[in-house]
Amino acid sequence: xxxxxxxxxxxxxxxxxxxxxxxxLSSGTPVWAAVSTPHHSFVAAAVERVGDAVVRIDTxxxxxxxxxxxxxxxxxxxxxxxxxxxxxEDRLRGQGSxxxxxxxxxxxxxxxxxxxADTVMVxxxxxxxxxxxxxxxxxxxxxxxxxxxxxxxxxxxAPLGDxxxxxxxxxxxxxGNPLGLDNTVTLGIVSTLHRSSAQVGIPDKRLDFIQTDAxxxxxxxxxxxxxxxxxxxxxxxxxxxDAMGIGFAIPINKAKALQARLIRGxxxxxxxxxxxxxxxxxxxxxxxxxxxxSPVILPEVNGVLVLQVLPNTPAAKAGLRWGDVxxxxxxxxxxxxxxxxxxxxxAAVGQVLNLTIQRGDRSQRIAVRTAELQGAA
Length: 377
Hints:
Number of helices: 10
Radius of gyration: 27 Å
Largest sheet: 6 strands, antiparallel, barrel
């Protein structure tokens, strides 16, 4: 009897949802509005859960400019012998977003929001303003931690989600302060996952971004990207100036992995070997080799083609060359540039990576000892 009743309830629910979907399609009402509460959407509920923890970050830094070299020219100086030429200072102001992750006043944001700032002021949604101390910055992952000074009572915090559970097509809600417009919310979906920083156009970073069509504008940087439950799944960080409706966020799991070290002010080390590369296939080799003007005959194998070896890098010291095809690392087959990049990212600084390469018609092994990637270089 109970099983029959449960089955009947399930069928009734499906029927009601079906009617709601038909009504949405016929009336032009968004589907999410039909599955929301009578007075509020799931977006409102998500934003209400995290909104008080989203902050605006205002920064200032001093730039010292040397006078025009023309003014120091002896020919010019003979006409103005008493003219003093002190360095000139400019105050540059910046703005971004962030969110509180600890009630003591720990704020997470982007590195580029607070890097080199002389002063950091953090404004809460309720209007309170705190001076911020930059505790830790990692330029390569574009993450930073700011500690609020003078906090006397627990502050609201944003619940952190699990970005490994995010799927393409999930709802994505961006919250922040774009263009000086505080407490702005935009809605979209997760467009794709694991979009590499090289594909995004910022090769100095080491990230696999969440791509979303939720509107992200200047000033959104450092603010949270939420799922429909109001949990932070990413940190809004980048927009493409040459594209409409495309934004990128750092997966929150990446931030959680570095969070404790950044709070302690530790320097985050990143390994590198110093090559420019691309995924390579036999079809690409055949196309190259069929060209009579090609400067080199490439092996028809799957792997990673070395496009350039940067000078004074581990790869250069190990003897890697342009045109080499890397087919394995420590015995593990390599079929894409992203795969090789991931191996290097997860390697310790100073770790030896044994590369199997195909150079022309010969296969050989080269040992490369990783070095520390300096700054955003």
